[in-house]
Amino acid sequence: xxxxxxxxxxxxxxxxxxxxxxxxxxxxxxxxxxxxxxxxxxxxxxxxxxxxxxxxxxxxxxxxxxxxxxxxxxxxxxxxxxxxxxxxxxxxxxxxxxxxxxxxxxxxxxxxxxxxxxxxxxxxxxxxxxxxxxxxxxxxxxxxxxxxxxxxxxxxxxxxxxxxxxxxxxxxxxxxxxxxxxxxxxxxxxxxxxxxxxxxxxxxxxxxxxxxxxxxxxxxxxxxxxxxxxxxxxxxxxxxxxxxxxxxxxxxxxxxxxxxxxxxxxxxxxxxxxxxxxxxxxxxxxxxxxxxxxxxxxxxxxxxxxxxxxxxxxxxxxxxxxxxxxxxxxxxxxxxxxxxxxxxxxxxxxxxxxxxxxxxxxxxxxxxxxxxxxxxxxxxxxxxxxxxxxxxxxxxxxxxxxxxxxxxxxxxxxxxxx
Length: 418
Prior knowledge:
Keywords: Ion channel, Ion transport, Membrane, Phosphoprotein, Potassium, Potassium transport, Transmembrane, Transmembrane helix, Transport, Voltage-gated channel. By secondary structure, the protein is of the alpha+beta class. The chain is built from eleven helices and 15 strands. The protein has helices at 14-20, 54-57, 60-66, 69-98, 118-130, 144-172, 175-178, 242-246, 273-278, 346-351, 353-394; strands at residues 182-184, 188-193, 196-205, 211-225, 231-239, 256-261, 282-291, 297-305, 309-311, 313-315, 319-322, 325-328, 336-338, 404-407, 414-417. The strands form five sheets. Strands 1, 2, 3, 6 and 9 form a five-stranded mixed beta sheet that branches. It has a four-stranded antiparallel beta sheet with strand order 5-4-7-8. It has a two-stranded antiparallel ribbon with strand order 10-13. Helix 3 crosses helix 6 (144-172) and helix 5 crosses helix 6 (144-172). The longest helix is centred in the C-terminal third of the chain and has 42 residues, at 353-394. The protein is elongated. Residues 1-12, 17-31 and 400-418 have low confidence and may be disordered.
């Protein structure tokens, strides 16, 4: 059966009309790639095919500190139990060699009293190493081998305790623990500040203890290809900030906005709003400083990919003065507001300054129009409220009737005239 032919010609149908419409240029979406620094600051890097594994054993203490807690606890438990078993075997051999386990020699002097089996030797080993000393088992002065084993076990136990305590202290006082209270804004913004296009982020510290000598470094990481054809997968470009130019460190008393002016030396100089969304760059932020309470240097890191950079936005203020005290509202820490910003690159703004002037003029006109509308709405609302109050009060302001009396000819009656 043949298909029924349409009455409308094909060139006037929806497919024909759609084919003749002018198409906008389609930008290819950026391929999702792994970021080098996660939002929590961890490095997204996997080490593979390391052949010289013995280098990690040359620095055992750092290896133990870098391990996860579950592996550290397993290693320490295994070390303690192994040392107890090893010296338990030593005590059992000493008692066996001296004949302390012979039932016929119960009344004679022993090296270690009440050590009659391997279990009792194991319990005595634990008592010696952890210095519990229940009093039931003890060594005597008649056996030199027992005194030697006692000295060796005490030395080994002190070494194990020192390593364990030092490792636990270093793991609990690591610098990344303090970095948990150093926060960054979820998004970065690009807007006009002081007539220059700027890249801005917000940083803050949740604790009252200060970070001494805080510094912020910005780096742009992208994949580049040299003119010789060499591919550099992680090309790091330092980005200068206003705080680094003005002084050497930050006074991180309240949340601060770190600003980077996009100038000729900036890697963002040639990127427009559309090109930024299609680029594969990643901006890494590193905050370093010394913890005031412990004196340990700490470092907090985060990164922003192109999807996390908002063009034409600005951070809302969060610091207010309330009853003589400055208050910080962290619920608005990452909130932004949209502002008028040219969508072209910073290079184009430098070559065509009138674009920025026109944008600022449009922004001023829109601001004035919004103020006029707001004032007119307030005026209308006040007039409506005032009219209603007048109507309610008019009922009480009705003038009273006035009566005029005129005498008659006889003078005995009066006519009321209103």
